[in-house]
Structure formats: structure tokens, C-alpha cells
Amino acid sequence: MNQLLDKLQNNILVADGAIGTILYSEGLDTCPEAYNLTHPDKVERIHRTYIEAGSDVIQTNTYGANFEKLKVFGLEHKVKDIHQAAVDIAKKAANDETFILGTVGGFRGIKQEDLELSSIQYHTEIQVATLVEAGVDGILFETYYDLEELTNIIKATKRKYDIPVIAQLTALNTNYLRNGTEINDALQQVAESGADIVGLNCHHGPHHMQQSFSHIELPNHAFLSCYPNASLLDIENSKFKYSDNAAYFGKVAEQLINEGVRLIGGCCGTTPEHIQYIKSSISGLKPVSEKNVVPITKYINQKEQSSKKQNLTSKVKSRPTIIVELDTPKHLDTDLFFRNIKKLDDADIDAVTLADNSLATVRISNVAAASIIKQRFDIEPLVHITCRDRNLIGLQSHLLGLSLLNINEILTITGDPSKIGHLPGATNVYDVNSKGLTEIALRFNRGINTDGDALKTKTNFNIAGAFDPNVRKLDGAVRRLEKKLESGTHYFITQPVYSKEKIKEVYEATKHIDAPLFIGVMPVTSYNNALFLHNEVPGIKLSEDILAQFEAVKDDKVKTKELSIKLSKELIDTVHEYFNGLYLITPFQKVDYTLELANYSKSITSTTQEAIL
Ligand SMILES: [Zn+2]
After folding, report:
1. What is the rounded CA–CA span in Å between residue 127 and residue 122?
2. Which stretches make up the Hcy-binding domain (predicted)?
3. Fewer CB within 10 Å, N or C, the chain?
4. Residue 268 known to bind ligand
């Protein structure tokens, strides 16, 4: 058996604390790993101070030295050099008894990043190979938020090398990973994938780590490890700092040993002083071989919100369904807006869709409007949510608020950048894109909270995605639609289309897709409007014939409207040849247009249905 694992059979080993924290406190202005090449003496000194403080195990200064993170500093071509140098430095600092772990950090962070597993594996394997070849005593995978990423790389490493693997997850909650997996289950899976030591590091200080470990069983074929942060993060004089608590840290270390931890170190904010206190407080302790596991108190998620109304997906799958877009005003005189909502409601339209500051222009909050619509009318509000205006905290609180208001029809969109709107300097947040936002809403539908804990009630979101067929290559747009469908989008709403051919083309390109589409129709209101759409809106082209027809009646308002309605009706005829879903976009709050078109749609679809019957 390998010496490290052999030693752990009967002993507790003390690891080191943070390297980055010390370098930052000394004025580091690049990534800590760059110092392996430029200031190897400083890194070596930190290793030595940890060993002097009592670390039996140290880790290479390579946590963030992966391709993606080094790219930010223009160092992505130095991955191998940085790892090789890190092992050389650690070896210089180590004495004969010191174990050196080659550290590798996870790629997938707190945001749901779109990195493919295969690409992560490719880059991580280069790091692991360099560390193994340079002669480390074990590989430490740490700060992994994503279970799939971690188990995948453990398997790949164990297939190639006979070297101890220490694998640590990072959880934002004491009981669950972000995706709702119980930490105990997750660690058992990590052990089953081949890790020799499994545990947790980062995010939590010693108190919350102790809570986590109270729920963790001793794995059958692996040891437990824990590297807590020093404390919660505090802000003092605009600087982040951790509490000055080394003595306390040592005391909690003793409790962690009683929970079965055999390899104990420190993560962010910990210093050689913390390690000194751990060393002295655990001296004389022997590893435990059995423990009491406290079960997690579980909330039963059975109390689902029951909605008497059929959602739009099942409606449109079973019958012709009309949704109408009516955007909230830019001003506070809302009389006309709610009068129009009443007209749509009286006309038995299935839903009214409310954009979220579309074209990056400020309008009254669509949630406020939807909430009033819910109270006063029967028509269902469909609320658009853009990723532009809210960060991950705001988006999730927004979704929970919508659920509380029983507003369940949502459209997730990435959103137009602020540059195109009236406030070009406003920050574009984009913590996630529409796909990431859809995944969050679906997690809420499974009853899982933002940090993986129970929501106590499942949300009931029916999620729409946007589909723009007005592009040069429809294949690309269809592939994006397929991706949205894979991530869980329930149905799609298209941008307005202006030709029968386009509607047929969309049908042919999407008929293999098992999700309903609402086809957008927006009446052209005048010759000038036609010219604007044709010449200034990207992707939209009107035929020469249509432009000529509008030009011919341009001085006659009545005839212009008649033409507009006639052309829109022709489009609606074609929509209903292929689709149940019709999405009418109200031009300039002119709800009389949409009402006439909605009534027309109802008249032709009800006769079609009768004919079928
Ligand atoms: Zn940390």
C-alpha cells in the first residue's frame, strides 16, 4: 500500500492551510500560481512555514492553474511549466516525512458554466499527468462544486495511475450539493468512483463543516478529509477578511476528528497559526472507526401547488391557442393598458405575454402588472424574464416571488444588451443565459432551493423559450432550439414572421421536435412601419409586393388598416394549416388589431375543428 494511505490506517494527518490568502496579504497582483515561475522563493517559504507549524501533508500551489483560469492572466500556455515548478518548489521545502499532494481545482464553478465534460477532462488530464510525472505522493482534487465533473476525473486518473486520490467537494449548504444530492450520498459516489480519501473543503468555516460531517457516514473503502475555511467572510475597510480565530479553529478540529476525519487542513483564510492549533489540539487523538450519524431532517415536498388551470403547453397540444403580447407602459398612466387587458380577457384570449424591458428600454415591471392581472382578470399572464437585469441572487428571488403570486407561465430569455436601448451605459449582468435560467426554474420545479436544500413546496413553472426564425440559416436557429429543449424548455414562441413561405419553412425545420410552437404574427400598421421593418429590423424582409401594396394606400388610413388586417389574416391561415399556437404581437398598443385577428383565428379554427368532427 502507498505510504500515505498506510499512514492514515492508524493516524490522523495534518495538512496545510491557504497559500493564496498569504500571497494576497503580501500584495499579490496576479494569480497565486504565476508565482511558481516568478517568485518560487516566496512559495517555498510558505510551504516551509506550514511544515514548521506541523503540516504532515502539503499541497502544490496549483489550485487555479487550469487552462480556463490561467487564460484570464494570459498564462494558458504555461499550464505544464507551472505544475512542474510547483512540484519542484514543494520538494525543496519538504522534509523526508512530508507528503506532497498535487492540487487540481474544479472547472465548473458556482455559475452554471457551459464547459463540456470532455473538454474539462482533456485539460485536467494534462495537469494530473504533469503532477504525477513530477513525483507527487497523491493527487488532491479540491473545491469541486459539480459531482459529475469530480467522479469523471477520478475515474480517468485511476485508469491511468496507481496513485492515491484525495477528492473534495464544495457545498453551499451543510446538507446538500447545489443539485439537491445529499452530501453523504455524494461522498459515497466519490469513493465508489475510486477516490481513496473523500471530503469537503472551502465555503464553510469549521462550525458548518462540523454540521455537515455529523451527517456523513464513514465510507467503507475510503478515509475522510476536511479543509474548512477560516470563518465566514467579513468586509473591513472595503477589504475581505476572515476572523482571527486560530485557537477556536483548533478546538473545532478536534470535533471533526470525532466525526471521522483523518486528514485535516485549512482552506481560504487559514494560516500557519491555524495549523499550529490543529496540530496541538489533535495530538494524542486516534482516528475513529465508528460514529453516530445524525440523519438529515427532510422536508417532504408533497405539498405541490395545485393549479386548476391547464398550462399553455397542454392547452396548445390539445387545441388552437392564442397568446397576445401587450407590453407594460413606459409611464404610470396605466388606464389604457388595463382597459386593453380587459378587452383581451373578454375576448377569451388564452394568455397575455408581458415583455421584460424589451429592447433594453425601461417599462413598468411586468411582475407588478402580472400580479394585478391575476387579481382582476381571468386571462393568464406570461411573464418574460431577461438575464440582463438581475444577477443570480436577483433572478432566483424573482422566480420565487413569481411562484408566490401563482404566476407560473414564464419565458426565459438572455435579453437584448443595454447598448441597444435608452440606457446604453447600464450593466448587462448575464450571470447565466436563458438556458441557465431555465435550469434554475426546473430545479425549483423539483423542489430544490438555490443552495440545494428543500424549497418545501415545488414550483409549477411552465417554461417558454424564444425562437427567432428570421435568420439567414434556419438550421443554426433550430439547433439552438433543440438545445433549449434538451435543457427542459416546455414550448417555444417565435419572433414575428412575415411570409407564408417562412411559416412552412419553420414547420418543415421543426416538425421533428416534440414541443409546441406559437408562431408570431405582428400586423404592419402603415407604409412607414413597413419600410422600417424591412430596412431597419435585422432579419425581417417584406416582399416587394407587400411594400407596393402598402405604398399604394399610404394616404388612406382606413384602407391601410384593411390591408394590414387582410395580410395578417392570410398569415394566420397558413399558421393554422401547420400549428395550433398563434402568438399575436400588438403593435403600438393598438389592441383592436389583435382582437380582430384573434377573433378571426377562432372563427377559422372552430370551423376546421367542426369539419374534422
Ligand atoms: Zn477555500
Report:
1. 9
2. 1-282
3. C
4. yes
